[in-house]
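so my prof wants the structure for this chain in the tokens format not the other one, which i didnt know existed until like an hour ago. anyway here's the sequence
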Amino acid sequence: MTRDLQYGYKRTVDGPIDQVEERVRAALADEGFGVLTEIDVKATFKKKLDEDFRPYKILGACNPPVAYRALSEEVDIGLLLPCNVVVYQSDDPGKTVVAALDPVKQLGVSGRADMAELAADVQERLERAIDTL
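here's what i got, hopefully its the right format
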């Protein structure tokens, strides 16, 4: 996994996007996440703009117990949820990129020190999930 993004981390994985996406969903589930939202960017761009784009999905991952704790502390923290994980076709044939937003930075914008522990927990879980791919 690389940390060459200032706002997240990513990993390039062998395999076609459909197979890698299945593995991502399973790895997230193993860490207690469900996918609440899914945006098929390629399909959306084609439908709305009649533009072709590489296969690209944005998955909104949520760990319900952690989200409940965060929302119980500050109901408006939902503006910073869920955690986005992207899966897209790499420029390298036969490879797929998986990237996740850094939840420490994501929740850090709240200015609430009490969110740091939750964010660190989510970060560890997301990193483990991506590392298993």
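also thought this was worth mentioning. The CA atoms of residues 40 and 84 lie 13 Å apart.
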